[in-house]
Amino acid sequence: MDKLAVVYPPVDTPRPLAENLWVVESGPIDAMGLHLPVRMVVVRLPSGALWLHSPTRFTDGLRQALEAIGPIRHLVAPNIAHWTFLKSWQRALPDATVWAAPKLRDRAQVRASGLRLDRDIAEAPPPEWEGAFDLAIVPGGFGFREVAILHRPTRTALLTDLVQNLEPGKLPTGTRLFARLTGAARGTTPLHLRLAIRLGGTAARDTARRIVGWAPERVLFAHGRPFLEDGAGELGRALAWLLR
C-alpha cells in the first residue's frame, strides 16, 4: 500500500472547520516503524493572532497560507510526544511563543534537540490565550502528560494521543495490525497509553470526567478520523474505560 494513502488530503493545507478554527492534515509520520497520519489544529484568537496546536511539518507554503489568515504567535506542544516539528517552526518564527506540556522539558531528547521552550502550560489558561480555552492536564506514569483543551467559541475539544481513531483500510499492513491490537482503530485510548494513564490514579479519572463534562460538539485529535458529530457522546464512549 502507498504510504500516502494513510493521510487525509489536502495535505499541509489549512482547511476551515468552524469559525476561527482550521485543521491541517499531514504525514505520514514514521513512529517506531508505524506510518501514521497526523493533524494540527489552528485557532484564530480574538486579537486575530494564530495559535497552532501540535504543529505538523513545516513548509514555506503552509506558513504563507497560515499568515494569510493571521500572524502566528503561539506554538503549542500539547503532550510529551508531539514536539518534533517545533524546531522548524521556531526557526522560521523566532518571535512566536512555544508552549510546552508539563514534563516535556524534562525529556532528554528535548534537551538535546536545542528546542527553546518558552512557557510551561498549567491548568489555568494563560492570559495570552485571550480567554478562548478551558484546559485539563491528564496525568500519568512514565512522565506522561497531555493537555486537553476546549475551544470555547466552537465547543471543540482538542486532544492529541488520548484518543486515536485510525482507519484500518488506510493503513499499511504492520500499522493496521498494531492499530487493531492496541485499540487505536476503535476511537479510544490505545492500550499502550492506558497503562501510563492508569498510573495517574484518581487524578487521571477526575480529569477524564472533567473533559467529558465539557460536552463538546466535536472532538479533534492527532491521529485518525475525528469526531465531527455527537462529540459529547463519542468522547464519553472513548474514555469510558477510564471513568469506570
How far is it from the N-terminal to the C-terminal residue, by CA?
Answer: 39 Å
Q: In the CATH hierarchy, what is the superfamily?
A: Ribonuclease Z/Hydroxyacylglutathione hydrolase-like
Tally of separate helices: 8
- As laid out across the biggest beta sheet, the strand order is 1-2-3-4-5-6-7
Task: Count all strands and give the number.
Answer: 11
Shape descriptor reads globular
CATH class: Alpha Beta
Looking at the structure, the CATH topology is Metallo-beta-lactamase, Chain A
Radius of gyration: 17 Å
Share of β-strand residues = 25-35%
Total domains: 1
Helices and strands: which structural class?
alpha/beta
SSE succession:
EEEEHEHEHEEEEHHHEHH
- Chain-averaged pLDDT: 96
Approximate helicity band = 25-40%
Write the layout of secondary structure elements.
Elements lengths: L13 E5 L2 E11 L2 E11 L5 E4 L6 H8 L4 E6 L8 H7 L4 E4 L7 H6 L5 E2 L12 E7 L5 E7 L4 E3 L14 H10 L8 H8 L2 H13 L4 E3 L10 H8 L1 H4 L1
Parallel strand pairs: 4-5, 5-6, 6-7, 10-11
Antiparallel strand pairs: 1-2, 2-3, 3-4, 8-9, 9-10
Mind explaining what this structure looks like?
- It is built from eight helices and eleven strands.
- The protein has 244 residues and is α/β, with parallel strands linked by helices.
- The protein has one domain (3-243): Metallo-beta-lactamase, Chain A.
- Strands 1-2-3-4-5-6-7 form a seven-stranded mixed beta sheet.
- The longest helix has 13 residues, at 201-213.
- It starts with 13 loop residues before the first strand and ends with a helix.
- The mean pLDDT is 96.
